[in-house]
Amino acid sequence: MARRPQELLHLLTRAERLSVRRVQSVLDEFDCSVEAWRVLDLLSDGQGHNMTALADHAFLPAPSLTKLIDHLVDQNLVYRRVDPADRRRVLAHLTPRGVQRWQQLVREVRADWAELEPLLGDLGEEEGARLETLLDRLAATLEEGRSRVTTTRAVGRAR
Questions:
Q1: Which of 9, 77, 83, 121 shows the greatest Cβ crowding within 10 Å of its Cβ?
Q2: Which helix (DSSP H) or strand (DSSP E) does residue 50 occupy?
Q3: What percent of the chain stands above pLDDT 90?
């Protein structure tokens, strides 16, 4: 990597915070948080997901996710069902109203982001796809490295 880690971290953090701020400004019109939008997005595949998967996707700790899911259930956007494959687990699903809300949110967020395309100039579709690939690879590498470091530290402490 050409940049120092702290410079890369600063750029990534800045881009993430500005991106979230922009998306949140769209979601505010619908009284929806970015975390709720992320949950609705994952559930939009119609598969039903357990709380661990939702917490990971929304970047929320379990207690915060539980409160969020309770709120989405109260709004009739999400419902819970026992997992037929493992009755100890609960799966969340979108209600028909939740599907409509998710579609509305996706339309609005995409329209807002489409306004950025002319401003991005050189970042065409091909470079955008490459950026996505690079960020995905960086995240996977960091996740893999975190697992290795955690395992190594745990083994080192056991001695």
A1: 77
A2: strand 49-50
A3: 63
Q: Which SS3 state, helix, strand or coil, does residue 49 take?
A: strand
Q: With 80 as the cut, is the pLDDT of residue 154 above it?
A: no
When pLDDT is averaged across residues 58-77 and rounded to a whole number, the result is 97
| Burial profile 24-53: b = 16 or more Cβ within 10 angstroms, e = fewer | eebbeeeebebbbbbbbebbeeeebbebee
pTM metric for this prediction: 0.80
pLDDT at 33 over 90: yes
CB 42 within 8 A of CB 54: yes
Q: Alpha-carbon torsion 114, 120, 121, 126, what sign?
A: negative
